[in-house]
Amino acid sequence: MNPVNYSRVPIKRYDPDTRIRTLNAPTLIPYTLDEVVAEASRCLGCGLCIQGCPAKIDIPGYQIAVANGDIETGLKINFEKLPFVAVCGNVCPHPCEDNCVLDDNHGSIATRHIKKFIAENIEDYNEVLKVRKNDLGGKAKVAIIGAGPSGLTAAFYLSINGIDVEIFEQTSRGGGMMFHGIPEFRLPRYLLDKEIEHILSYGAKIHYNTKVGRDVQFMDLLNNFDAVYISIGNWKPNRTHVKGEELKGVYHALEFLGRVNQGERIDVGETVAIIGGGFTAFDAARVSLRLGAKKVYVLYRRSKEDRPGYPSSNAEEELEEAEEEKIEFVWEVSPFEYVGENGKVTGIKYWKNKMVDSGSGRREPVPMKDQEFLMKVDTIIEATGQKPDLSFLPNEIMSKLRMTQSGDLIVNQYNMTSYPGIFAGGDITNKRKDIISGVADAGRAAMGILLYLKDKGKIMRVPKRLTNFEQGPYSTTYYEIRDEKIPTVLQITSIQ
Ligand SMILES: Cc1cc2nc3c(=O)[nH]c(=O)nc-3n(C[C@H](O)[C@H](O)[C@H](O)COP(=O)(O)OP(=O)(O)OC[C@H]3O[C@@H](n4cnc5c(N)ncnc54)[C@H](O)[C@@H]3O)c2cc1C
Ligand code: SF4
């Protein structure tokens, strides 16, 4: 084993001028074996990081395993809570790292890069996991709506517990926003496909091109299955409704990224403006560059310090990578008109904002309408968020579901909605709206569904843990929680 070095082992990046030439060249150069062992060996085993992880993965457990060169145990420990180890190893915003006790002095442990190493160096997960199904003494059927990370995670943990799972997915492939939103240069598709295939190998059946509300009715699922898990994500674009939005060359980022991720090469011209400041804005900007734009500007209404996700190591890394690629940021501005010629966009007019203290704890932008600017552009991409489309739910169900003001479903600590037997998770319930939170929801929901099925007499037993893997000597047992019954009083978790 390498001697302990207290400074973080740096992760190297490919040359920005080279990596922007193609849509799929990765940014990061993965750790070598020596590097990953040295990095994992820095871990003190205190467990503070676990509190930062929405899925409560036993992070020190897998670091210590890797420090000892045992990546197979590292994989099993991750799979206790996460069937998307490679996905999260590449794109998780790693909130756990911001909790690391070494963060202030020597650099937090690179938990995400270590996870990436584990997943990318094990070819056949099943050979390592040797999944033993729990015998719950009964049969039950669960319908899952949406094959994004949350739906697929629920499918994994339910199918390895012997439940018959059917997934209804409106598009022609699984992955949700992991495929339609996240670009390939951040998440290689062979890794995504490998993890989806692995999940489905335990028997979950998937109906592609099947939109609930159009091709199959929600009430039929509710009547024909013993429980339903809704994990449809947020697929309805929030538009700015700025004057000129209908001009050719103006897109919402979901449409733009979705089309590019399905293989289309959109002609973006020389200059592109992105409106927004989150994950999606950064991706739209970096994809535009890879489609041949010479200049890409990101226009955001708040200040750099008020951008989504800031402060966090992920937000810093995201900005560093974009700035390395010479993407330019225009902070504190409000676009108010898109101008065009012959129906095609040619420019964007915006005001400069001042940031005022609204008393809410977050400074709010107020446009200074005497400070008007015009930027000439060929393409505008609105990365201004998205919301859920629950229009497939009949009124009799909708009226019984508790929802937040912004339209998210409210769930209890087992991700059951206020309608018994209907569970929900992922972007339609959690606040963070990232993959690991959707995975965490699905883990809680899978346990909640098992408790519910036992209450209904469909199964005889509920396991203590969703998985039955043999673990090596390094795993810890933090955060074992289990109730015998689904609680009758809902403890609302999703709006806290
Ligand atoms: C551009 C972009 C970049 C992102 N980058 C990151 C990142 O780097 N890291 C990170 O952690 N998160 C990232 N996210 C967020 C992350 O992708 C989401 O939080 C996550 O995918 C949500 O998972 P989900 O399962 O709830 O929903 P989704 O992934 O949205 O999946 C929902 C699925 O439901 C299907 N569906 C919807 N309605 C119906 C219906 N009526 N019938 C049948 N099927 C239906 C959809 O087709 C889809 O497959 C990004 C998001 C975007 C848009
Ligand atoms: S907080 Fe840092 S040092 Fe402590 S267990 Fe987690 S990774 Fe290791």
General description of the model:
The protein is an alpha/beta fold and 496 residues long. The protein has three domains: 12-129, Fumarate Reductase Iron-sulfur Protein, Chain B, domain 2 (Orthogonal Bundle), CATH 1.10.1060.10; 141-235 and 387-455, FAD/NAD(P)-binding domain (3-Layer(bba) Sandwich); 237-385, FAD/NAD(P)-binding domain (3-Layer(bba) Sandwich). Helix content is 30%, strand content 18%. It has helices spanning 16-19, 33-41, 48-52, 59-67, 71-79, 85-91, 111-120, 125-129, 149-159, 177-180, 189-200, 218-224, 253-261, 279-290, 313-324, 395-398, 435-455, and strands spanning 12-13, 28-29, 141-145, 164-168, 205-207, 227-230, 236-237, 250-252, 271-275, 295-300, 328-331, 333-341, 344-357, 363-376, 379-382, 386-387, 422-424. Strands 5-4-3-6-17 form a five-stranded parallel beta sheet, sandwiched between helices. A five-stranded parallel beta sheet has the order 8-15-9-10-11. A hairpin with a 5-residue loop joins strand 13 (344-357) and strand 14 (363-376). Helix 5 (71-79) crosses helix 7. The longest helix is centred in the C-terminal third of the chain and has 21 residues, at 435-455.
In terms of topology, how is this protein built?
Layout: E1 12-13, H1 16-19, E2 28-29, H2 33-41, H3 48-52, H4 59-67, H5 71-79, H6 85-91, H7 111-120, H8 125-129, E3 141-145, H9 149-159, E4 164-168, H10 177-180, H11 189-200, E5 205-207, H12 218-224, E6 227-230, E7 236-237, E8 250-252, H13 253-261, E9 271-275, H14 279-290, E10 295-300, H15 313-324, E11 328-331, E12 333-341, E13 344-357, E14 363-376, E15 379-382, E16 386-387, H16 395-398, E17 422-424, H17 435-455
Parallel strand pairs: 3-4, 3-6, 4-5, 6-17, 8-15, 9-10, 9-15, 10-11
Antiparallel strand pairs: 1-2, 7-16, 12-13, 13-14
The protein binds flavin-adenine dinucleotide (FAD) and iron/sulfur cluster.
